[in-house]
Structures are given as structure tokens and as C-alpha cells.
Amino acid sequence: MLKVEEQTPVVFSSELLAKFDDVKSRYPEGKHKSALLPLLHLVQAEYLWVSTPAMDKVAEYLNIQPIEVYEVATFYTMYFLKPQGKYALEVCRTGPCCLVGAEKILSHLENKLGVKEGEVTADGLFSFRGVECLAACGFGPVLQISPEYTFYENLTEASVDKLIEDLKNKS
Amino acid sequence: MSRKLLLEHINVPGINTLEVYRQKGGYRAVEKALKTLTPEEIVEEVKKSGLRGRGGAGFPTGMKWSFLAKPEGVARYLVCNADESEPGTFKDRYLMTYIPHALIEGMIVSSFALGAKVSYIYVRGEMMPQIRILEKAIAEAKAAGWLGKNILGTGYDLELYVQPGGGAYICGEETALLESLEGKRGNPRIKPPFPAIAGLYGCPTVVNNVESIAAVVPIINDGGDEYAKIGIGRSTGTKLISASGNLVKPGVYEIELGLPVEEFIYSDEYCGGIANGKRLKATVAGGSSVPILPANLTLKYANGEPRLMSYESLSEGGFATGTMMGSGGFIAFDEDQCIVRNTWNFARFYHHESCGQCSPCREGTGWMEKVLHKIEHGHGKMEDVDLLWDIQRKIEGNTICPLGDAAAWPVASAIRHFRDEFEWHIKEPVKSQSQNYGIANYATPIEKAPVTEEK
Ligand SMILES: Cc1cc2nc3c(=O)[nH]c(=O)nc-3n(C[C@H](O)[C@H](O)[C@H](O)COP(=O)(O)O)c2cc1C
Ligand code: SF4
Ligand code: FES
């Protein structure tokens, strides 16, 4: 997962660095490590995943050890440590959503996309996974699509099919 | 119709904008607090209101505020807990999406009361759309002079920032949240010291739930005594209930505490009954962590008296026959739902979310998940039920943070009330794969016990 040699170095754009500076200004003197989680989100929004060279750059920017970034990136579930599909679909698989059919939606996605959870479709467009409760239990089953985290509620197999078609046409 | 204090204007078009929010009386509480009240007086009003923390533990907010240490020359912080990840709970997301200014107004008043000059709203990272909504609302409020330097010319300065999480249920626990806000893994801290003494960056800190902070607005507008008149006993005010599962109308409802559970489930003003004409089998009344109850004990106490939506009434009977208010995540299970499958699902959730610091939680949640998986898939043995009971008992009370208890209680309560269903799964390994155990006698009404005269 963290094999450095396979990953090409990254150069952060000046726009991205300006966003970094803005985040860093939210914390008191000397507490800039607080910016770490927001910065990783910014990196992921830009590259759609968080590579080791990118983490090393973030460490350099915050003047902390690379390990401090790795341990955070691996603890939290939102950071993708390997490339995903252009549209990474995340379906809630927790209890309340299962009462209203979340498991069916997950297996439907698997059939529809023809890949297993965590894999990317051949065209590079889609990947999917089950995630835990997304705080929308009354409107289940639900899914979200990173990096924008657009939200889709009250899913049915038909609405999932339509969503996938729409996304295909968009790209 | 019951009184609404938080969601009164939820359907007003544009209520998410500062302009409309102001037209509906928004930011009056900031004016009143900053211009006419001292911080001590605000704390006093919140104490009088009887408001109890809406994040899950139900600790009195005013009392929590009065514990905040105030050493000279040391910054103090207010951190809003918008991590909302307890399965079954989705009220904070709803509030932030539709009335973001209610939270911001509450944050300004509360920060002033606590003497905080910088405050953070820690929002779970998956809520990117809500983060953008809040950031926009904060910018609006700042441009209008409700935030920033010298607010309303009173000399009070406040900066408010939104901090995203990274996807981890444990960061809802307040000390894990603070670790996360400091840019670290979300490992809960050993307490004491409590955040009121040493919280964010080692400084005195109050962590409050979104709904608790939003409730400060009506408390300041109407006064703590007025707020305390709503509700029942020590459950004062209104509460947002997130209703999910097999209901006709799932959603977020603001109720006056003390509403009968039966009315909440079946009346058209609230959930409108069980979906598809089915019968109610069980409920989890306060978010996935609280004990599950069969339908009959949901609606009535063991002695036949009606159960109410309040902190005291939901916990009436202790864990033997009661449950807890928790975060107000009300999950309804119809007669076709499988308790074993749901218990396995929750155990899987807690195993996935355990931060791994304490062995009983890290190992115990994984073990429970495995055993439950076996039973659910027809490979269980009779002694597995006692094994599960044993494991959950060894987790409860033996961990750094309450996630351990939260993982143990759903398993314990499922075995306590639905043991026959677990045993059926084991005795009928083939049938249980294609059929459900059904409703059994879980919905059999509890008759009111005849009153015996005390001598
Ligand atoms: C595992 C765990 C998860 C929690 N998740 C949340 C949460 O998502 N939101 C929340 O407000 N409180 C949560 N809490 C409770 C907080 O620790 C804390 O008690 C609460 O934020 C205090 O706010 P209140 O007094 O306003 O309720 C959680 C507690 C535990 C142990
Ligand atoms: S109880 Fe579980 S989640 Fe809480 S600190 Fe221990 S291991 Fe972590
Ligand atoms: S259980 Fe799916 S959003 Fe809560």
C-alpha cells in the first residue's frame, strides 16, 4: 500500500498551496498540525486519492514527520490509499439502511458494474464499496460519490441504474 | 400540534440564508446575550432551562459549562460536535442543511458565555455539502458583523471555523474528536483530565452537540424558565428525533419530551405507523448503542403503564425492561426483520469502528462479530449464545471510552429479549437461511397489572 518507489512524485499547484495556507491560518500559532485532515481532503479532491509522495509533501508543508501523515491517512476511512474509479460510489451498509434494502443495492451494484467491492471497472469510471452509517438513515438506502460527496437517497435498483447511466453519459 | 423551537421555520423558503433567517427573528439571541447579559447570566439561564446534552449522554449543559476552568491568560475553546455517526441518528445533518444559521447563532451565544475567542465546528468529513453550507453561512454572518472583531460594538471578538473529520465513528467521542482536531488519529484520551480542564491544545474546552448548541438560542430568547416549562420532569424542552426503519414516514421530528411512544410511532403527525401494513416487532429507541426492546416493552413498561419519549421514561425498568434516550435515533423493526442479522450488523459496525486501544473492545467486538456471523449463517452452536453473553460482559465497563459499552449493550439486550430467536437460528440452520423467525409474542400487549393496595 505504501510502496514509495512505484509512485510518481507530485508537485502541488500554487492554487492548491493557497488553499493550504488558508486552512493553516485557522489554528493558533504552533498548532498547524490541526490542518492535516483538511489538507488530505484537499489533496484527495485534486488527485482522487492520496499517494505516498503526496503525503510526504504534506508532511514537508506542515513541517512534521511523514509517519505522522501516514498514521492519520491510514486511520480514517475516507482517504483512498490507492486509485479509485473516477466515480467512487459509497453505499451505506449499516443496520437501519439494511432494514430498507441496502444489501440488495450493494449486490445490484456488484452485478451491474461487474467488479467486486474495492475494484475499478475496466473503463476506469467506477468503483464502489460499503461504508458505515452516513447520517441519513431515514432516507435509506443511500449512497454518496466522492470527491464532491453528492448524495443520493431512497435508492432503488432502477434509480441506481439511471444514476450509472447518467454518470457514463457525463464523462 | 406540539411546540417547535428548532424546526419552527424549517419549511420557510430561503431560511438557509441570513436574510430570511433574520426576518424570522434570527440573531435576536446574539443581540440579547452580547448587549444585555453577562457570560455568567447566560450560563445561569442554561442551567435553569434544564437542557441536557443532546449528543447521547444527556449530561446537563449548564452544569458542564460551569465546570469550565478559567485560568488567567489561557485560551478557552468551544467545539461543536457535528460528527453525527451513531447509526440511526441524522438530526444534526438535517438541522445544518436546512437552518445552518441556528447552529451559528447558538455558537456565538455559547462562545460568548464560555469566553471562547476561537470556536470550531467539527463536522464528519462525509458531510462535505453541509461543510460548504456552514462555511457559506459563516461568511454571511461575518460580513454582517455577527462574527469577527468587536461584534455589535461590544468589544467581543469571535472567529468560527469548520473542521472536517476523516471518516471515523469514534471521533464522535469528545476526546477522540479533540485528538482528531489536533491532526492526529482519533484515539480517545484517558480521563481525567476532562476537557473542561485540559481539552483542545491542552486548554479548557467544552464539547457540545449541534442540537444542544442550537437549543441555547430559544433558551436565551425566551428565558431558561420558559424552556423548562416544556417537557416532563427532568426531561425539559423539545428534542429532535431521527426516525428510521420500517415506518410509514421516517424522518426528523421535533417533539416535546414526554410524548407517548405509541403516539410517536402511530399518529399521523409523526411516523404514521409501520410501513406496508406490517406489525411492529422491535425498536432501538436512541441510536444503535442503546438496548433493543421488543414492541410490547417499547410501548409500555413491564407493569403495563405507557412509555413516554423522555430520558427517564425510556430508561424505566433499567436494562432489564427499559432502554435509553441516547441521541434520539429511533429505529423501528417490522415483523419481517431478523434480530440476529441486525445484531450481527451492529457488532460488525462496532468492530470496524473500534480504535483498537483497549483489548476488550478491539478483540471482543471482533469476536462477537464472528460468533454472530456464524449463527446468522446457520453454523452456530447452542453454547455460542452463552459465549456471546460472556464476551459482552467482559467488554462492558472495562474500556477507556464508552464505545466498548455501546458495542456490548446491543448484543446483551438482543439476547435478553430475543434469546428464542437466536436459539431457533441454531436449531434450524437450514430453514433460518430462507425464512424468518417472525414476530412470535414480541408484540403481545402488556396488560396493566392490577393495583395492589399498600398496607
Ligand atoms: C463512541 C461515541 C460516539 C459518539 N458520537 C457522538 C456524535 O456523533 N455526536 C455527538 O454529539 N456526541 C457523540 N458522542 C458523545 C460525546 O462524547 C459527547 O458526550 C457529546 O458531544 C457532548 O455533547 P452534549 O453534552 O451536548 O451532548 C459520542 C460518544 C461516544 C462514546
Ligand atoms: S473502548 Fe474501543 S474505541 Fe474506546 S478507546 Fe477503547 S478500543 Fe478505542
Ligand atoms: S444506516 Fe445508512 S445512513 Fe444511517
From TrEMBL, chain A:
Its cofactor is [2Fe-2S] cluster. Binds 1 [2Fe-2S] cluster. The keyword Membrane does not apply. Coiled coil: none annotated. PROSITE patterns: COMPLEX1_24K (PS01099). InterPro entries: NuoE-like (IPR002023), NuoE_dom (IPR042128), NuoE_N (IPR041921), Thioredoxin-like_sf (IPR036249). Gene3D superfamilies: Glutaredoxin (3.40.30.10), NADH-quinone oxidoreductase subunit E (1.10.10.1590). NCBIfam families: nuoE_fam (TIGR01958). Belongs to the complex I 24 kDa subunit family. This is NADH-quinone oxidoreductase subunit E. It comes from Pedobacter ginsenosidimutans.
From TrEMBL, chain B:
GO terms for molecular function: 4 iron, 4 sulfur cluster binding; FMN binding; metal ion binding; NAD binding; NADH dehydrogenase (ubiquinone) activity; oxidoreductase activity; quinone binding. PROSITE patterns: COMPLEX1_51K_2. It catalyses: a quinone + NADH + 5 H(+)(in) = a quinol + NAD(+) + 4 H(+)(out). Residues 340-385 form the NADH-ubiquinone oxidoreductase 51kDa subunit iron-sulphur binding domain. Its cofactor is FMN; [4Fe-4S] cluster. It holds the Pfam family NADH_4Fe-4S. Its EC number is 7.1.1.-. Belongs to the complex I 51 kDa subunit family. This is NADH-quinone oxidoreductase subunit F. It comes from Pedobacter ginsenosidimutans.
